[in-house]
Structure formats: structure tokens, C-alpha cells
Amino acid sequence: MTATPALVLEGVSKSYGAVPAACDVDLVVPSGELVTLIGPSGCGKSTALRLIAGLERPDRGEIRIAGQTVADGRTFVPPERRRVGLVFQDHALFPHLSVRRNVEFGLHGQPRADRAARVTQVLDLVRLGHLADRYPHELSGGEQQRVALARALAPRPAVVLLDEPFSSLDENLRAQVRAELVGVLRETGTTAVFVTHDQTEALSIGDRVVVMTSGRIEQADTPSRVFEQPATRFVASFMGDADFLRAHVHRALLTCEIGVVSTVPGWADAETDVDVVLRPHEVALTAEPDRSDDGPAVVAVEYHGAFVLHTVRLGSGQTVRSWQPHSVRHPVGTPVRVSVVPGVTPTLLVGDTAVSSPPPRG
Ligand SMILES: Nc1ncnc2c1ncn2[C@@H]1O[C@H](COP(=O)(O)OP(=O)(O)OP(=O)(O)O)[C@@H](O)[C@H]1O
């Protein structure tokens, strides 16, 4: 028997007037999974969370939480009866209540002794037991966010929804609070849907990354597949840097302006035009200082500390980028040879869709 997923969305759609904020969204989140939801501003991330939480009603489709239908054509379970916990970026703690009372808030209806025991338990979990009697304004931003997580976890929700929970924290604190919160979610085996606009955050904390655009899911996959095998041109360009070159496959050899890129096993009979996706860490440069033709040359050098990003203009005028180690700096104007790092199997696109087998001829 397969376990009941913590969360299921089936064909969920929601428009605001003419704006489609969720279009036919399908998503299954197994119990204990941490899903990150990412996409450009306005793509519908918050709407998806609000639909799951019950703060919005879908126009169509069905939402199930821990096997219970909470929204479909006939049913609409209100937020307080949905078994979801919410953590938002602005903490949303009650300023006039102590930490203990804030956490206890979600437990009304339970016997007082049980409530007190659970509050102690979740405050210990987020390592804030010693601050139980403080008020929100007496806490740091990171501590407030841990209280918000404790409050969300206290009623033992089936799913915790986090909407950009670290965006009000500064860069250094952010990494620390993120590690703490994710640690608590993992420790407690909590199922979570985590909205972020930060690609590195999405890739580093998610068991699965859901990439959205214009209300649609473009790809829902493991972090490495989303980055290394993007399903579409949009995912390739949104999740990390990517350059796209026109290329051709002939007898399993992929060639483009920079020469032979790689072999494409299984494409022996193919004769087809594609676009090849090149990420800057996949592009190698060799200086050719004595060359004097109009071939590839460095047009920009950006120092990033550990790595240096080189932008190269090819003979066609198109540019590609290449990460070079800290010690390598080819000055602007240096003629270079561009190649693909050995062993890389780049993503190929036909139109806007990634392909792993040759498209049918004709
Ligand atoms: N209450 C509303 N009334 C009208 N339009 C809305 C409402 N809420 C959201 N929208 C629109 O729906 C679309 C999706 O918005 P949503 O807030 O879900 O995007 P988002 O991906 O969370 O964006 P951001 O990253 O900027 O927070 C946007 O075009 C937005 O303008």
C-alpha cells in the first residue's frame, strides 16, 4: 500500500479577473518532503500557498491535505481546519503576547496542561525555551522567525507553508536562520512547501524544486535535475546562468559555432538543428594571444571573489560566459579559444523544450 501524500493539488486554477495566477496546477507532495517553489515575481507562488492554506478559493480543481479534500467544486474547508501551519516573511507574531502565548495561540481547544507541554516541546525544538517569557520586540529577527516556526508546528500540521521566510533578514543572518529552520523541519520530518525567489536557496534546501511561470509549473524535479536537465528554455535560463547557441546534430556529433561540443548517444541517424544550453561553468577558455582575426575575444571580466566571470564575444556576435578560477584573468580584448569542459553533456532544446531523443524527421 502506498502512503497517503501530505498534499495533493489536481488541476487547480485561480484567476484574478483576467490574470491567471494558477493554471491547472498538479502537484503531489509525499509526507516528509521539503518542496521549494520558485519563479519570477508575479508567477503565482504566493497564490499557490494561499490556495493550499485556504486563504483563496480555487476556480477549478481539487486540493487534498493528508487525504482529506479541503477544496473542490463542492467543498471548502476554512484555513483553521486545514492542518496547515503558516510562516510568513514578516513573522506576524502578536506584539502584545509573550513568546509562550504566541506559540500557544494555535492550540486553543486543547486542555491547558497539554497546551503547556506542547509549547515547551516546540520551543525546545527551535531552541528558544529560555526566551519563552519575552515579547516579540525583545527578540532578534532570526529569533522571531523561530518563534513563528514553533507556532506553526505546535498544532502538528500535516503541511507547513513558508512564504519567503528569510527575506526580511540580512544576508549573514539569513544563512544561519535558514540552516536552523531547515534543521528543525528535517528533524521533525515535517512536510513543507517553501516559497523563495533565491535560486541557490531553492536548490540547496529542497528535496524537490518546483519552478513556476505565469501560473504554471514548468518543472517539478530534484534540484540536480532542475539545474542539470532543465525541461524547458525558461527553466534553463531562470535556474542559474545559461547561454543558448544554435547547433546541429549530424551522425551523433553536436557542433556549433565553437566547434564540436559533444557526442549525442542515440542520435546516430539524426540530422537536426537544436539549441545547445551552455552554463558558464561548462565553458572552457584558452588564451590565444597571437591570434589576430575576428574570432572569439573577451569583452567583459567580472570579479566575483573565488571565481571570475568572463564574457566572450564569438565571431557571430553572440556572447557566451565562462567561470574561471580566481587566479585566471584574461584581460578584455584577449583572443581566446572557446570549448566545452570535457565530460559535459549539455541540454539540447528544440523550440523551447528540452529533448533527450532526436525529434522525428519531416
Ligand atoms: N488579490 C489579488 N487581486 C488581483 N490580482 C492578484 C491578487 N493577488 C495576486 N494577484 C496577481 O496574480 C498574479 C500572481 O501573484 P502572486 O502574488 O501569487 O505572485 P508571486 O509569484 O508570489 O509574486 P512575488 O514573487 O512578487 O511575491 C500576479 O499577476 C498578481 O498581480
UniProtKB/TrEMBL annotation:
GO molecular function annotations of the record: ABC-type ferric iron transporter activity; ABC-type quaternary ammonium compound transporting activity; ATP binding; ATP hydrolysis activity
Database matches in InterPro entries: AAA+_ATPase, ABC_SmlMolc_Importer, ABC_transporter-like_ATP-bd, ABC_transporter-like_CS, ABC_transpr_FbpC, Mo/tungstate-bd_C_term_dom, P-loop_NTPase, Transp-assoc_OB_typ2
Domain ABC transporter residue range list: 7-239
EC id: 7.6.2.9
UniProt keyword annotations, A-Z: ATP-binding, Cell membrane, Ion transport, Iron, Iron transport, Membrane, Nucleotide-binding, Transport
Pfam families: ABC_tran, TOBE_2
Classification via PANTHER family: SPERMIDINE/PUTRESCINE IMPORT ATP-BINDING PROTEIN POTA, SPERMIDINE_PUTRESCINE IMPORT ATP-BINDING PROTEIN POTA
Name of this protein: ABC-type quaternary amine transporter
Natural source organism: Nocardioides donggukensis
